[in-house]
Amino acid sequence: MSDESVQLYQKRVQIYPRSVKGRFRNLKTGALVLAYLIYYLLPWLRWDRPNAPDQAVLYDLPGRHFYIFGLTIQVQDIFWLAGALIIFAILLFFVTGLAGRVWCGYFCFQTLWTDLFIMVEHWMQGERPARIRLDKAPWTREKLIKKGGTYAIWLLIAFWTGLTFTMYWADAPTLVVDMLLGRAPYPAYFTTFFLTATTFVMAGLAREQVCTYMCPYARFQSAMFDHDTLIVSYDRRRGEGDRGRSKLAKGLKTREERHAQGVGDCVDCGFCVQVCPVGIDIRNGLQYQCISCALCIDACDAIMDNLQWPRGLIRYTSENALNGKKTHLIKPKTVGYGVILVAAISLLTWSILTRAPYNATVEQVRQPLYSQLSDGSIRNTYEIKLNNKLTAPVTVSISLEGATGAILDMDGMERLVLEPQERIKLLARVQIAPDPTGPHHGVEYITFVVKSLEGATAEPIRRKVPFSMPDSGS
Amino acid sequence: MSEQTSEKQTTGAVQTTGHAWDGDLQEYNNPLPRWWLWCFYGTAVFSVLYWFIYPSWPVGQTWLKGFGSVSYTVADKATGKEKEQEFRWNTRSLLLEDLSDAANNQQRKDMLAKVQAAQYDQILKDPKMMEFVRSVGKGLFGDNCAACHGRGGQGVAGMYPNLTDDDWLWGSDMEQIHQTLAQGRKGYMPAFGPVLKPEQLDDVAEYVLVLSSETASNEASERGKAIFHGQVGGCYYCHGADAKGVPSQGAANLTDRIWAIADVPGQKNLQDKKNVVKNFIATGVNNTRIMPPWKDRLSPTDIKLLAVYVRQLGGGKQ
Predict the structure, then answer these.
(1) For the residues of A138-187, what is the DSSP string, one character each?
(2) Does the global pTM surpass 0.95?
(3) How many CB contacts within 8 angstroms connect chain A with chain B?
(4) Ordered structural domains, chain B, with CATH
(5) How close A323 comes to chain B (CA, Å)?
């Protein structure tokens, strides 16, 4: 081919996916309904939480608290987010290694919203041929209404999507009213606008191109595939036979006739291509565009059922199975991912279940390291930070342990009520009369003990800190 | 997706970019969508617009200042009143806007008002107010006091008092600390060099060391004691009959272990200790220990905050 014909950029080819019925379609619809029920309704769910917002799931950024049902996550616990992300990543690796791009096909929001937008398109403009006809037709009143109506519904869905996302970051009923009255904070409007725009563009206009050109996950999931991974695949040997596929022509009506002539089971109806939301022909083999949505399986199964031939010309299978070998599901890779997954989930669960109701840190004031007092004893000062993680008041007491003769002076704040979610810094002075007979060391250690007296049951928190003394040369 | 390559690829129908590297290395041409290209051009065009929208390049003696401005409230230095100010958009004015209008600034103002309204003993007992005083006081102390008293209030031996010990020359009551800050203090002790004979100075120095248990009572110290409590020295006028000092005079407690001026703990032997004490008694304090008044330089609120801050540094009298 000549250099002149090389096109580095191409106009997008519009895809008109045909609707299809079948078990994978039902599975996808089920996942979609479940995901949307959760996403759109969750911000409206209330949760009884004294002294704190009553929204079941609320990410309160100004207040530095994430509320997730019975769990309140503080800034200090944000590493749980890292834990959750690690779990999601390993889960993706694990599932992708076993069953291919399950995430892409059934759960990814790009897939879900594109699916929903195509349903709207189908409802407004009709089935695939009608949509192709409509696009080619000149602009008439009918086309204007159908196209405009589709866009209007898309925009409405997109707006509600954006608004719902914003609701997770503020009290939902208040926010909606505030936004209508124009008194919500600027970021609320921006977030809603931004997500409305992206939802509309990504699910309405860009669609499969998001997966093909933008999404990094789409690409790197391929790296987790191996010969045992479940993929949506066309059974080339059954479909093509020795002489290739052929339509249901005369003398090629039954399987027996076709097999006798060396023709495969594929009747080249093209249904699998028409239903594909990313516009590929699965019969060309595994392609990077394929999101494993399995709609081509439904399409082919429908045709096979019609012909009363066995299903599975297109099916979930592995490369090894296609080549007549055994598929191994248990192998070092999957076991390894599984072990890491279980370990990560256990660790995170353990960390959340054993979270302290309050925490305390003690830091020595280092300028000056110590002061000599009028009676000759040595004083160090410490800054104690207390943080009540609960939404109820907690009474704590602060005392010393392990240092004989140490006197703690906190101006009467040794016992203190921490208000719900209160964070406070206290000053503690500790004085020790040095033993005149014993050798002095530059640094000794004392232990602060923070006990909860009321409002929370927890192990006392112990913080060992240095106590500085002058070095005695003599 | 290695072995099951697509039909197009195996039959060679896939387009390549037409260039061959190392003889046979070719690249499949998977064309990008055209809109992607236009987006790229769009970003290039926008980058030029961006130079004008936001502050950017120097141009001659000036620079591209960008559009937009930020308004924020600032306190007028002279009057202390708040006024609205507008400045062109930059990250500094955004920060100032954030500082003036943010929710935590309102919290700070509320807390300040609370501290202003409260009595000293209320503040000292309230953990929240004390946290606030420590936070704000640290800055005030650093700006105004740390030059002499040190960043942590530890002072300079012999020159500026240590504020972190429990020895308060001018008293540790809040009223006394406030007085010290607002009106200033001037330490004074007459020079006894011209009044006492050298051997008498020796005796008094000996007695002073006995007072703070540096040495045991002896003949010399007994003579010193007579001078201290008698008409010759008259030390007890200021330091008191028990030698525990009189805060209203700024007279030091001589019975404790703290030496504000004479560097006794730094001396190796008793003779050196006696010498530094003797020298000090001989020269006295005159115009060398001065705390300036702050009432004209700091607002009453600042003085109040600093008084509490200083009180918590030393923790008052034990």
Answers:
(1) ---HHHHHHHHHHHHHHHHHHHHHHHHHHHTTS-HHHHHHHHHHT-S-HH
(2) no
(3) 125
(4) 118-186+290-314 (1.10.760.10), 198-283 (1.10.760)
(5) 10
